[in-house]
Amino acid sequence: MVRGALLFLVLISCLLLGGCKGGPSPVPTADTPGGMAWIPGGTFRQGSDDGAADERPQRSVTLDGFWIDRTEVTNDQFSRFVLETGYVTVAERPLDSAEFPGLQAKFLEPGSLVFRSPEKNSRETWWQWVTGASWRSPLGPGSDLTGIGDHPVVQVAWQDAVAFANWAGKRLPTEAEWEYAAGGEERERYPWGPSMPPANRSPANIWQGAFPWQNDLADGFAGTAPVGTFEANSFGLSDMAGNVWEWVFDLYRPDAYRLDGPSVRNPLGPDSSHDPQEPGVIKRVMRGGSFLCSEVYCTGYRISARMKSSADTGLGHTGFRCALTVPGPQQRRSTP
Ligand SMILES: [Ca+2]
Ligand SMILES: [Ca+2]
Q1: Å from CA of 94 to ligand 1 middle
Q2: What distance in angstroms lies between residue 307's CA and the mean position of ligand 1's atoms?
Q3: Which are the contacts of 109, defined by CB distance < 8 A and separation ≥ 6?
Q4: Which ligand minimizes its atom distance to the CA of 239?
């Protein structure tokens, strides 16, 4: 009765004062979830017919509206989750030698993959396994989160991201949701427009210079940047290009867009994973590129660009953001 009376008063006020017209479209929930933006439902063309093979063919996707975090999940936010739950990330757990016979002992210890810029023209890999690297020590032993509480959390596996999302009462965005949130219905090549500005006016935290040997730091950041440092896109979302790759819900297949036909509604991705480069490894999709992407290497910050990684692997350039389904007539499968 009290809520009904309040609603009546609001309606009367609107009629008398004319104060309920104009402004942004109302959203279909009573409260705006903290730190999230509402993405109205709509239809867009997912993928790119002139992008990489796994971005093809372009298909029509219709989505119901949803909420999505304005920023990547930060170290401070992830710290609160761990403090409250005692959660131990994949990178902090030792592997069972019985499950991985033949694996070198050092790879059984807790650790993760850290980017190390090699010498010029070196054939050395730039991803190195570092024992003791984890979200708490993103660069390995000796590194910590001092001064980077507002940077995106990294070294989290897909299942770590899901655990956080469950704790927060949210979920990971689907790949289609993520792509739509990056560019909307009439999107360009990049979240900021059709072309790449000069390096000294970079609109995102990416890599300037000759990857992987020389980082010119034109955007001011060699690694992660505080979330929201760069201009947000038209939905108010920051770092949809660059800073860190972001896990999304979907399993990875290069032919994912062919499976459901040319038109699909609220796709959840394929039912199984397959990467021809690493058959048998279950992979999930990552989106948006990172501080290691450049115009001559990766360009993962293109809106349609796809990346994949083993679901149980943390990386120094990968984090995530969460989404939220609005309660109501939508009947979507909830993510695990
Ligand atoms: Ca940078
Ligand atoms: Ca990002």
Answers
A1: 32
A2: 19
A3: 94, 131, 132
A4: 2
DSSP state of 1: -
Question: Distance, CA 244 to ligand 2 centroid (Å)?
Answer: 4
Confidence check: pLDDT of 328 > 50: no
Determine the distance separating the centroid of ligand 2 and the alpha carbon of 1, expressed in angstroms: 45
pLDDT at 31: 58
- Say which ligand is closest to the CA of 237: 2
Pairing of strands 36-39, 66-69: antiparallel
CATH for 1-336 is 3.90.1580.10
From ligand 2's centre to the CA of 16, what distance in Å?
46
Q: 241-251, pLDDT tens digit by residue?
A: 999 999 999 99
The ligand that comes nearest to the alpha carbon of residue 222 is 1
* Cα 101 to ligand 1 centre (Å): 39
CA 42 / ligand 2 centre spacing (Å): 22
Q: What's the DSSP call for residue 335?
A: P
In this predicted model, what pLDDT tens digit does every residue of 148-182 receive, in sequence order?
999 999 999 999 999 999 999 999 999 999 999 99
Place of tokens 């695990």: 336
